C-alpha cells in the first residue's frame, strides 16, 4: 500500500488497447484517441501528453512561473511543491482549518479557505501570483474532496484578480463521486456530468494518469488557451518528447484513453470508495486513530495519536511505516515531517500540522480479505505501540528526500 499511483490493474479493454497502440513518432493515432477522450470528458481543447504527472507539472511551471512568484493551493502535494521551488517559486497552502483536524468529519476538508485566498490575492495580485491550483482530491490532507461550490468560488476569486485557476486532477473521478454523495444539489447526478462541471471552472489541469486514468504510466497537461499551449509545447518537446507522444509509447496513450472512459463508471467508484471505507471501519472499531472521514484512495493513520510518546524529531510517521512493514510486510508511506523536508532558508526540518501514514489502495487489485490482513497488522502494532522507538535520519538527498532517505533507530 505504498501508493495507488501506477499500481492499479488495467481492464481487459485496456489490455486489448495495448495491441492497437500506434507507435508512430509523430501523429500517432493513439494520441488523437487520448485527445478526444480528454476533450469529451473534461472539455479542454489542447493536450500535451507527459510521461507522468510530475512531467506535466514540470512543463506547466517552466512555462508560467517566475522566480519569487507564489502558487496558491488548497494543499500542495510533494512533487507539485518541489517543482514550484525548483523554478524559484513559493508554494502556499490555503485549506480550511478543518483539513488539519484528523477528527473533524467535515464533508469537504479539501476546500479552500476562501477568505484567506481572497486576502492573499488582494495582497499580492497577478504580478506576484502565478497560479491558483486546487488538488482534487487533496492527497496531503488525507484524500479529502473539494466541493464544486468551493471550486467555483475559488476560480471566480482567482479570475477577478487576473490569476489563472488550474486543477491538479489526479483523482478527479473520486472527487466527483464524493460531490455526488455529499454536496446539496448534486446528489445522485451522473459522475460524468459532475466531472465536466468541475473542469468547466478551470483554465487547465495537470494529470497523473497513474491514478484516475487507471494506467501504470502516463499523464498530461490540458489547457484552454491556445497561446499558453504553444508556450508549453516548447518545454514539452524539450523535456518530454514530440507533442503527440510526450515520453510515452503509443500503447500507453491508448490504455490511458480507455481508462478515462472507465473511471467514471459509478459501480466501479462505489466499489473503489467502499474498499477504503471497509478498511477504515475495521481500524476505527479497534480504536486506531485515523483521518476522518475516510478519503477516496487511502486510509490515513494519525501518527501523532498512534505514537503519542514520540515527539516530532523522532519521526512518528516514518517510525510507524517501519513498524507496520516489520509486523506484517505491508508497505505504507509517511506524509509528515520526512515528506515535508527542510526549510530552504534555515535548513531545519519542517514539522507540518499533520503527521500521517497513508495506506493507499491500488485500484482493482486487492480483495477485502487482503485488507483484513492489513487491518490485523496495523492493530497488532497498535497493541504494542508504547514499546515503539523513534527514528533518526542518517542520509538524505536535498530534494524530495522521502523517496531515498535512510534511517536508524534511536537507542
> Which class best fits the helix and strand makeup?
alpha/beta
What's the Cα radius of gyration? 21 Å
The second-level CATH architecture of the largest domain is 3-Layer(aba) Sandwich
Largest sheet: 7 strands, mixed
> What is the straight-line distance between the termini?
28 Å
Describe the overall structure.
With 411 residues, the protein is of the alpha/beta class. It folds into 2 domains: 12-262, Aspartate Aminotransferase, domain 2, CATH 3.40.640.10; 266-405, Aspartate Aminotransferase, domain 1 (Alpha-Beta Complex). 43% of the residues lie in helices and 14% in strands. It has helices spanning 12-18, 29-42, 53-64, 78-86, 114-128, 148-160, 172-182, 191-200, 226-239, 250-262, 266-285, 303-306, 316-328, 337-340, 368-383, and strands at residues 46-50, 70-73, 90-93, 129-135, 165-168, 204-208, 219-223, 298-302, 333-335, 356-360, 391-395, 406-409. The chain has a 7-stranded mixed β-sheet with strand order 1-7-6-5-4-2-3, with helices on both faces. Helix 6 links the parallel strand 4 (129-135) and strand 5 (165-168). Helix 3 crosses helix 9 (226-239) and helix 13 crosses helix 15 (368-383). The chain is globular. The model has no long low-confidence stretch (mean pLDDT 97).
Amino acid at each position: 500500500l505504498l501508493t495507488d499511483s501506477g499500481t492499479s490493474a488495467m481492464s481487459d479493454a485496456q489490455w486489448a488497447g495495448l495491441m492497437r497502440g500506434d507507435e508512430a513518432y509523430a501523429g500517432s493515432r493513439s494520441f488523437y484517441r487520448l485527445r478526444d477522450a480528454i476533450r469529451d470528458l473534461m472539455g479542454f481543447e489542447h493536450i500535451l501528453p507527459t510521461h507522468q504527472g510530475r512531467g506535466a507539472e514540470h512543463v506547466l511551471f517552466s512555462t508560467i512561473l517566475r522566480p519569487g512568484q507564489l502558487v496558491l493551493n488548497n494543499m500542495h502535494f510533494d512533487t507539485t511543491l518541489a517543482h514550484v521551488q525548483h523554478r524559484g517559486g513559493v508554494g502556499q497552502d490555503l485549506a480550511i482549518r478543518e483539513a488539519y483536524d484528523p477528527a473533524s468529519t467535515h464533508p469537504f476538508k479539501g476546500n479552500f479557505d476562501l477568505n484567506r485566498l481572497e486576502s492573499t490575492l488582494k495582497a499580492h495580485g497577478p504580478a506576484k501570483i502565478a497560479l491558483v491550483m486546487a488538488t482534487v482530491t487533496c492527497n496531503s490532507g488525507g484524500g479529502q474532496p473539494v466541493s464544486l461550490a468551493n471550486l467555483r468560488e475559488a476560480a471566480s476569486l482567482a479570475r477577478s484578480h487576473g490569476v489563472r485557476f488550474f486543477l491538479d486532477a489526479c483523482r478527479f473521478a473520486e472527487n466527483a463521486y464524493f460531490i455526488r454523495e455529499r454536496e446539496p444539489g448534486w446528489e445522485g447526478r451522473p459522475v460524468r456530468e459532475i466531472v465536466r462541471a468541475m473542469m468547466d471552472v478551470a483554465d487547465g489541469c495537470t494529470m497523473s494518469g497513474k491514478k484516475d486514468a487507471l494506467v501504470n504510466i502516463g499523464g498530461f497537461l490540458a489547457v484552454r488557451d491556445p497561446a499558453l499551449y504553444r508556450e508549453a509545447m516548447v518545454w514539452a518537446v524539450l523535456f518530454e518528447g514530440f507533442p503527440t507522444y510526450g515520453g510515452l509509447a503509443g500503447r500507453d496513450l491508448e490504455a490511458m484513453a480507455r481508462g478515462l472512459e472507465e473511471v467514471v463508471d459509478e459501480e466501479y467508484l462505489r466499489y473503489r470508495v467502499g474498499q477504503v471505507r471497509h478498511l477504515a471501519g475495521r481500524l476505527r472499531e479497534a480504536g486506531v486513530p485515523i483521518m476522518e472521514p475516510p478519503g477516496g484512495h487511502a486510509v490515513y493513520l494519525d501518527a501523532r495519536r498512534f505514537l503519542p510518546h514520540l515527539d516530532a524529531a523522532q519521526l512518528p510517521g516514518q517510525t510507524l511505516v517501519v513498524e507496520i512493514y516489520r509486523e506484517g510486510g505491508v508497505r505504507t508511506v509517511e506524509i509528515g515531517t520526512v515528506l515535508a523536508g527542510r526549510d530552504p532558508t534555515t535548513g531545519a526540518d519542517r514539522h507540518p500540522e499533520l503527521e500521517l501514514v497513508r495506506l493507499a489502495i491500488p485500484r482493482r487489485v486487492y480483495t477485502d480479505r487482503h485488507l483484513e490482513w492489513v487491518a490485523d497488522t496495523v492493530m497488532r502494532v497498535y497493541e504494542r505501540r508504547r514499546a515503539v522507538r523513534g527514528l533518526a535520519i542518517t542520509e538524505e538527498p536535498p530534494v524530495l528526500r522521502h523517496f531515498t532517505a535512510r534511517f536508524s533507530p534511536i537507542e
